[in-house]
Amino acid sequence: MRRGLIIVAALLIIVIVGVTLALSSTVKDKTLTAEELGGIDQACIDCHEDDLTGGSIHGVHVEVACFSCHDSSHTVHASADCQDCHAGTAGLKTADRAYDTLKWVGIGGAGLVILILALNLVVSRRRLGKREE
Amino acid sequence: MEKRTIERYSKAGIAFHWVFSFVVLILVLTGTSMFVPGRGPEGGYATGIIHRICAALFLAIPLLYSLLSPGRAAAFLKETFHWGKDDLRWFRKAPDYYFGGSGENMPPQDRLNTGQKMWQMVLTLTAVLFLVTGVIMWLFKSAIAVNIYQWLLFFHGAAFIVFLFMLLAHIYMSGLHPRMRGVFYSMIDGKIPASYAREHHGKWYERIKEESREHKET
């Protein structure tokens, strides 16, 4: 019995991690030019800064990043360049991709759980009501 | 509904539940808000501070409770991780039962039913994962590689997702499900209707009835 539970828990973890990693690898890479790689932090800021209006450059959607949230003098950010953490500049960063995808797995999963619970409420009320009649 | 009630939770247990729930709620809200892109630096900073304060309480409250009531803490773990054949049968029968089906074939349950055990198990295991990954990210951020930090963040988030799914089910089952009417108030006055105990916790109900009979005889 205990072994069965451990197997179920392990499968659940494997499914979540596996789905996340599989989905994360589908996100497209964006390769910067040599010039951009030279001044990579500034290149990132140029396109992704907070006051970017419209959210697109030459018709391509650009995610707006919160640079002021990344206090460059604070702990892990002090010695890091953008590409140390973020994917798309210097090759695939699986952890970054995975975490990004994980958010959508979480949001989608939570939506699904709420939907199942709502369905449960409607169905169980109806069936129990009929039984009481 | 039957008026006869049975005491299920102690006052200390109820106080622990609500204080801990409040801390968890703040952790969930501040943790979820960190997912939102573009939040302001002040808001982000304050969110981080509140999240850390509540994380410290998340560790401190169960520790304090365990020190004050070691017997109850040990019983919590024993109940949570003690599984038997009736739990397996519960898994088979529960979907139909909780979708309004007949309760005739539901296996008798102890003080905790299998669903409650599962919730407590997820809570305990994810709490350990939250604490291990959270403490390293909080206190040893400068000493670890960026890649390690990101994986810690990933597993912190993965644990949160599993926890959130179970938390939603826990809130729904204890407050909204038509078969669980009255059970929410047991976390206020500590008592549940005897009919509810008989239906949902048959083994436990029979045991306390027996104990009560023996007590009267002596």
Please characterize this protein's 3D structure.
The complex is a heterodimer of chains A (133) and B (218). Chain A is 63% helix and 3% strand. Chain A has 133 residues and is mostly helical. A two-stranded antiparallel sheet of chain A has the order 1-2. The longest helix of chain A has 39 residues. The model of chain A has no long low-confidence stretch (mean pLDDT 68). With 218 residues, chain B is an all-alpha fold. In chain B, 73% of the residues lie in helices and 3% in strands. Chain B has nine helices and two strands, in the order E-H-H-H-H-H-H-H-E-H-H. Chain B has a two-stranded antiparallel sheet. The longest helix of chain B is centred in the C-terminal third of the chain and has 30 residues. The model of chain B has no long low-confidence stretch (mean pLDDT 85). The chains are: A mainly alpha (133), B mainly alpha (218).
Q: Level of helix content of chain A? A: 55-70%
Approximate strand percentage of chain A: under 5%
Task: Give the averaged pLDDT of chain A, no decimals.
Answer: 68
- Strand and helix order of chain A: HHHEEHHH
Count of beta strands of chain B:
2
If strands are numbered along the chain, what order do they take across the biggest sheet of chain B?
A: 1-2
Helix content, binned percent of chain B: over 70%
Largest sheet of chain A: 2 strands, antiparallel
Number of helices, where a helix is a run of at least 4 consecutive DSSP H or I residues of chain A: 6
What is the N-to-C succession of helices and strands of chain B?
A: EHHHHHHHEHH
Compute the gyration radius of chain B: what is it? 20 Å
Oligomer: heterodimer
Largest interface: A-B, 47 and 41 residues
